[in-house]
Structure formats: structure tokens, C-alpha cells
Amino acid sequence: MANDVIVAKFGGTSVADAGQIEKVRKIIESDARRKIIVVSAPGKRFPKDQKITDLLLLCHQHIEQGIPFDDVFHLITRRYSEIIEVLGIQKIVFEDLLTEIKMLAPQQTRPDFLASRGEQLLAFLLAMYLGYKYIDAGEIIFFNERGKLNLEKSKDAIREKLSACENAVIPGFYGTAYDGSIKIFPRGGSDITGSIVALGADAILYENWTDVPGFLMADPEIVESPKPIRKISYRELRELSYMGAEVFHNEAIFPARVGKIPIHIKNTNSPNDEGTIITPDEKDWKGSCVISGIAGRKDFTVIAMEKDLMNQEKGFGRKLLSIIEAHNVSYEHTPSGMDSISLIIANSELEDTQETKNKLEKILSEIREKCAPDSLEVYPLAQIATVGRGMAHTPGIAAKLFSALAEDGVNVRVINQGSSEINIIVGVEIADFEKAIRAIYRAFCS
């Protein structure tokens, strides 16, 4: 395949109905380099509408409970039939595929098969509409025995498949597990598929088309009319995505970064808007604003402990971290002092499952037994990341940030700055979360 390829991924709202798909076609045809298309399942057409993936998961739940799923599946069939009718696509082959899915559904023990069929159906439909080749994601995306993406195998398979065609449509969100079954990425995983395909295709650009005009410097539900981010590096985006900034799936950054492929976030409904460009890391910062964005999450728990002469006790940190490792828990940060240390853990890591009941209480009990702290405290925490390449080159950033928080009466419980110096993370009370983000934004962006 020629090296002037653009891989374009279209999200659920971009393919929600026939009208949106017609917009997608015009975008694709406006640039001949858009040779490889990756799609999500149809999303919501209006606020109270249902996503196709949610309906498919509901079908699986009905099957698990021994409840007929025909009525729910009929809603899915009708949705695709409406698209086919408006776009004038041949029905027979498509209806055969729907019949096959319905027949195979009761045989599946895991939800992955049905959950992924929304993408498969839409990609098949779009390939017919565009006259492109359809390539099933199960033939090019592979997971290893641990359930992790096998990037090298996937990259090689993509190159082989694409070498035999000029244009292709590929469903996002799923691939083939080590045992040969269908396996899905986390929700929003079509972004990951697009990034992997861009790497395998040696693309010059990976476009991610959605329903927003790129990234904003802060959450518009917290900050009124935040400024857009026109250009951001992979590292900055990863920090912001991890700390809650939406639009682009955090795990989708890595494959594109491996290939040093720029990512362009664009709006399907306003294709001429500038959007946001995500670029390989740049050594020299040349931006006009020292920060690129602010993002945060409320879902953290702090386990804080104190012990006299902790710094002299050999192996204290190892014992502490071994306890959470034994419970299959990862941590975010470990702020520490001479006689104190805290573990900041995402709440999702502490959720009970059928195999692990009362996980947090068991961890605390083992800490008391093996580490014998003088005090042990647990409390919820929100974390906010202020991110920007320019921070490393500008004196007084920390002072400006903490002054802004102090002026608004926000108490900072935790402070962490990465060695790269492109971000400062502060932990605050959950009640102060929105106020803190607004204070930081005013300090740097007003």
C-alpha cells in the first residue's frame, strides 16, 4: 500500500443514522488519501435514544436469564434496516448476516460476541455503501494468552491484509482472543483499533472523527466556554486522558506513538473546524500558553499511615506494596515523609468481586498486622492534573497554581509532580473538585 494513507475512524454519533453516514461518505471522498476506515457501532441519534451496543448487551443479558431476546433484537434489526433503506444498499446479504448473528447468539457464554456485532454490522454496511473491501477485525487484531493486545502480530496481519486491497472498512472495538474467540476492548475501544490499524498501515495520519471540535482545556461542564487545544503532544494527552479528559481513549495513544503517527481529532458535523492535532513529543516548547489542559477525577481512595522512625525500618515500603500486590491492586502514587506514607488508589481497584469480598478491609487488616503503623487513616480524594510542556521552562508555575487554590479556599491534601515536569497533580477534597479546577483555569487561561 502507498505511504500516503490516512486512517479515519468514525465514532458512534458519526454513524448513528443514514444522514450521519452520508456526512461520513462526503468526508471520505473529499480526500483520496482516506483509504482505510474504522467504525464504531451506531450511537445515539437523540438524547433518549439507545446505543446499538447497549441493545446487544441487553440481548446477552436476556439469553443469560433464559428470557426471549427477539423483541430487543428486532429493535437492532429495524435500526439497520432503516439505514439500508435510506442509503439504497442491497438488503439480502445484510439480512443473512443478521440472521446468522441471531442464530449464534444463544451459544455464546461471554458478552463479547454480541457486544462486538454492532461494529461488524456497521462496517459491513459501510463497505457496501462505499464500494470498499470489508476486513473483519477478528482477522487482524489479536490478543495474547494474558488477554493483552498482541501488537506485533496485529501489525503484521494488518499489513498483509491491506497489501491486497486499495481501500478497506474495518470494524473497531474487537479482535480475536488467544483461544480463537471474540474479545472486545474496553468501551470506546474503537479508538484503539484505529490506532493499531494506522500503525499497521504505516499511515501518515490517524483521524479520529467524533461529535466534538477536539479537546478543550477543561471540562465545559465545570468551566464555562473553555479554550480549545489546537496542538498537544502524546505525553500531555496521555496525562489528560488518564485523569478524566474524554474524547479519545487513553490506550489508543500507544500504537500511534510507536509509529510516530500524528492524530487529528475532528468533528463529523463541522468537518472544516480546526480540531486538535496530537503530535510526537517535542523537545522544545514553543507554545503561547504554559499549560495545555486541566483534567481530574474524583474516584480515588487514600490509605495514609504514620509510624515513628519509619525511615529507619528496613523493607517497610516493600512490605506495604507487597500487601496490595497480593490483592491484585495497583496504586497511583505514594506520597511520603520521614515517618509517614500514603497510598493513592483508584476506587475501581478496591471494588469487591465474587472472588474478593471486603478487599479494602482485608488490605487494612494486613497493613496493621505486617506494618504495625501508629495510625492508619482512609479517606476519599479527588485528583487534578495541570498539564503542559511549557511548565518545565517557566519559573513560578507551582506558586501560581497553589496561590490560585488558596485564594479560593481550596485545601490541598496531596501534591505530586512527575520527573518529566510536564504536570502537577494535586489531591483535594471531593467537595472542592469543581472549585479547584475553575481556580486553576482562571489562573492560567483567563
Would you kindly provide a written description of the structure presented here, covering whatever features stand out?
With 446 residues, the protein is an alpha/beta fold. The chain is 36% helix and 20% strand. It has 13 helices and 15 strands. The protein has helices at residues 18-29, 52-64, 70-87, 91-104, 112-130, 151-162, 190-200, 234-242, 253-258, 316-326, 359-371, 397-407, 433-445, and strands spanning 6-10, 34-39, 133-134, 168-171, 174-176, 182-184, 205-210, 231-233, 263-267, 276-279, 293-306, 340-346, 375-387, 412-417, 423-428. It has an 8-stranded mixed β-sheet with strand order 3-4-2-1-7-9-10-8, with helices on both faces. Strands 12-11-13-15-14 form a 5-stranded antiparallel β-sheet. α6 (151-162) links the parallel β3 and β4. α10 (316-326) runs antiparallel to α11 (359-371) and α12 crosses α13. The protein is globular, with a radius of gyration of 24 Å.
